[in-house]
């Protein structure tokens, strides 16, 4: 673990002394593969690295996802290097965010996790404000800060009360079900609220489409890829603190998450903005994921962990594709990005691969994640099969709608010819969908 931390700070040092995208990308690839070989087959039980740090299969997979998404962020932002848009500051921001996420998934203490949880907002806020496209990025950044910080204050107050009542803040020993008896229902709702906003749960999601629309491609990729997973990860970790509350009111939250997922999926069908469509798609998928966690079953938790990794890679790839469209057409409108098949056949193949993963087509890991999640949700209530089936149908509908509308039709002449993909663009897209197909061959690492 110390070796991994040393490598992370080496990347940060490299960003200072020689801000070269190629060197930093190579170092990140080395770190990712070394960490995967060292801890990639961590069992479901905790592996204690020190008094404050530990690993299990969930945190290991999310740490690898954080490293991978950091690599993809840099590959997807080579235009910053070409246009000389403060590439050193960009690399430093990405690496600092990566280190914060790495520490977040290692923490065993709820207070230390809360600190890293909030610190992750700082480089994200800077990425949106510095490299965002339009003046509305100020409003989007403030929305994100206000929603997440206000909800997180309730988490801080709850932790103070738990400490006053001599309840351990350790997220390791909290997995004993009896700890749920010590958290009052009034505290439990505040404990969960911060993670519901971060995921986000329906009714607390208004900040996410705004942040995605105004963020640069790197900001959108890390938001969808990793930062939303912090909320899911935190909810799983504090689940036993709120055991009685969740057992009593899980029907309410399950209904909100599943019905909210259906509503956001319906919004996707009529959406014309590429980034807004992908953002609402993320909210719909996170609704199913929340339902799996709230089922409090083994299938629900395992399916949620698989879905975190699958959605992190798939949504990041979709945002990268939307940015590629935007770089050529200078528009995020689906109607302005038609006829790519005539202008750029190679791009259509990549679009099909990524969009098919979003609709959970085999052999993607999304299929395994959704099937296991459905088993967990149906074990909670058979009535939930109705919204789950609707979400599955709508997800396939808007994914095919997005693919067909962008690929076919007449190219808009006013934008001229499309630029060819660079090698690093092809490499970035390949690094999105190849893990989605490859991981399904070894699902044992999630169990």
From TrEMBL:
Keyword Electron transport: yes
Main localization, broad class: mitochondrion
Transmembrane annotation, as ranges: 21-41, 61-81, 88-105, 111-129, 141-160, 180-201, 222-246, 252-270, 277-295, 301-321, 341-361, 381-404, 424-443
Keyword tags: Electron transport, Membrane, Mitochondrion, NAD, Respiratory chain, Translocase, Transmembrane, Transmembrane helix, Transport, Ubiquinone
Keyword Electron transport: yes
Pfam families: Oxidored_q5_N (PF01059), Proton_antipo_M (PF00361)
Record-level GO BP terms: ATP synthesis coupled electron transport; electron transport coupled proton transport
Record-linked InterPro entries: NADH4_N, NADH_UbQ_OxRdtase, ND/Mrp_TM
Enzyme Commission number(s) from the entry: 7.1.1.2
Reactions catalysed: a ubiquinone + NADH + 5 H(+)(in) = a ubiquinol + NAD(+) + 4 H(+)(out)
Name this polypeptide is given: NADH-ubiquinone oxidoreductase chain 4
Organism: Loxosomella aloxiata
Name of the coding gene: nad4
